[in-house]
């Protein structure tokens, strides 16, 4: 058995006439951190959302752990099950504002995994402790800072015990002084062996945490490889310009 | 030539200048005595008599249409000078008003379906607050095991006979005959007259002079044949003048010289104190208040459930469900509640009851259905807005945890939709409570209907409405406080700040 967790081949996604993904190939190995970089509108979020079937691709193959994911024929229950094993964290946190912090973290285990309340609550407390918010369990999301809210969102995703974590610009909406904390948390998760696909514009984070970097442009991955090669010495013209703009 | 012009001018000007308005009231809902034509003018036997009498009394006739239940109140408050509206002369009414000599004589008659053999167990219709209703109440032995339903007008009773809501009805002999002739209902006079009744024109106690003049005019038109002509025109037969003249004798014997002799008195002042009046009225409001509260609460609960379901339906992915829900909202919000009440009562209830063969949908059931359907549509529209206002990010966050659409709706979207909608749901509820005042139209006795009844019974022109208003205000205030409390509870998660998407 290979160590590829999730593989996409020749993925296409269209929104009406807009062709957003134009044949993307991507392999994610277990315990690997892959960073997606690229200009705005190049399709990074769309690719990420195709991986957990938040968007259904129009064309192409998805393989999970060696088994094909026949997304055109999957029932909604099967799609939900796939989403449950792939955690996702959003740029704008998307916490449930009507639920307390601890309830946000417990929601998935309770309603999707059917865990008993006591167990879910215990696990949620451990996770909140882990992301440094043990004292905020009873708070409302609206009472937290952006950085704290994003930690809760990460805990909420981790509560499902996902096999891969999809992170879409999770620090872009945060003040600079809060970014480091989140990055440290993610780096620690990576060290522990969490498989992650990270969309970010933060090159230093990519350098520090990721193993491989993919550069996307106009719906395609135009350059990929070990992080040093892609970030420090990109071959594609667009990638060079983009890295230069980001580092300057 | 000049002289001629002058005479002509005087002849034209004199009556114009001299004529004052004389306002005469009738219900306009009592064919063939008073009804309205295509242009809304009052026409009928009463209308013609009123017009002719006023002219003979040297006034300019002004016919006023007034709801029967409040017709005495209108006289007292000076909305008009006379009631020329087929009002039967009774001792009770003579205590508060003057009457002219009878201007026609008729009587109370039971009309039942052909083949009816006894009164036993009949479902009887009768107009609310009529002398027939009082007679039935006072003589229960003549109507064994009968159920009585009160209606706003004879027209509604006929509709009720046709839709099999009642088996028989009690009304005026002439009026009943009129409807049978019209071919509207399959009923015929059953048994002898319950009693004979003479109708007179009513005036305030402070205007005996008007009564005297009206009597003189009445005498005149009976003598010169005008009366017979009008009677024939509307009733379809020649009047029996002997019966009329005999009734004049009876009337004068009954209250000797009263009509001619009474001294002018003050307009009736309300002698008992304000608080006493209200206190004496309160028990009368009990049934009505209970009905209003019952209907309001039941409707509120069911309509929130229905509104939520339809609200969800209207945002559904399935286009059929979405269209159906939106169509429902559109149709119900686009039609008046009163029309919906009539459809539920005369249409839906009748169809269901005859299909099942027993009364599964009562008047209360019909009212509840109409109110729920109506308020449900407004709630649905509110909830639709509430659901729409929950951001896409919430759906995605729930989906990324593996929650189904249904689960997301229930656990994530609806609670927030409620939070966003609770203020307008409360508003819908307040409107609903006030709208229950319309169910009197389908024979249910609620607060407003009660107030009208109390006006009729007590002779107080407006106090009962004040009492009803206070009741409504109290109910609505309590409901409002409840909704505000719920709103505060829901808002606690937002604190002072607005939650992030
Ligand atoms: N649901 C949608 N419907 C229509 N168009 C969409 C939808 N989602 C994304 N798009 C379009 O697809 C293109 C790619 O969007 P995407 O969000 O994947 O870009 P991105 O690389 O993540 O950009 P950014 O760095 O700005 O987040 C954009 O032009 C966007 O407008
Ligand atoms: Mg994006």
Q: Kindly state the mean pLDDT of chain A as a whole number?
A: 94
- Beta-strand portion of chain B reads 5-15%
The strand count of chain B comes to 11
User: What is the beta-strand fraction of chain A?
Assistant: 25-35%
**Strands side by side in the biggest sheet of chain A:** 6-7-8-3-9-10
For the sheet with most strands of chain A, the description reads: 6 strands, mixed
Helix/strand-derived class of chain B? alpha/beta
Succession of helices and strands of chain A: EEEHEEHEHHHEHEHEEHH
Helix content of chain B: 55-70%
Q: Got a strand count of chain A?
A: 10
From the spread of the alpha carbons, the general shape of chain B counts as elongated
Shape of chain A: globular
3D structure, described in words:
The complex is a heterodimer of chains A (248) and B (501). With 248 residues, chain A is α/β, with parallel strands linked by helices. Chain A is 39% helix and 26% strand. Chain A has helices spanning 44-51, 76-85, 101-111, 117-130, 146-158, 176-191, 203-209, 227-232, 237-247, and strands spanning 4-15, 18-29, 33-37, 59-64, 67-68, 86-89, 164-168, 195-199, 212-217, 220-226. Chain A has a 6-stranded mixed β-sheet with strand order 6-7-8-3-9-10, with helices on both faces. In chain A, strands 2-1-4-5 form a 4-stranded antiparallel β-sheet, covered by helices on one side. The longest helix of chain A is centred in the last third of the chain and has 16 residues, at 176-191. The mean pLDDT of chain A is 94. With 501 residues, chain B is an alpha/beta fold. Residues 256-270 and 496-501 of chain B have low confidence and may be disordered. The longest helix of chain B is centred in the C-terminal third of the chain and has 31 residues, at 405-435. Chain B has helices at 2-18, 45-56, 71-76, 91-96, 131-138, 154-162, 173-182, 208-223, 226-235, 241-254, 258-261, 274-281, 286-314, 319-333, 337-356, 363-388, 392-400, 405-435, 447-458, 463-491; strands at 20-26, 35-36, 42-43, 59-65, 82-88, 97-99, 104-112, 123-127, 147-151, 168-172, 188-204. In chain B, strand 2 (35-36) and strand 3 (42-43) form a beta hairpin. In chain B, the strands form 2 sheets. In chain B, strands 1, 4, 5, 6, 7, 8, 9, 10 and 11 form a 9-stranded mixed β-sheet that branches. A two-stranded antiparallel ribbon of chain B has the order 2-3. The A-B interface holds A 52, 54, 76-77, 80-88, 90, 92-100, 107-108, 111-112, 140-143, 146, 149, 153, 156-157, 160 and B 391, 393-394, 396-405, 407, 411-412, 415-416, 419, 490, 492-495, 497-501. The complex binds adenosine-5'-triphosphate (ATP) and magnesium ion (MG). Adenosine-5'-triphosphate (ATP) binds next to strand 2 and helix 1 of chain A.
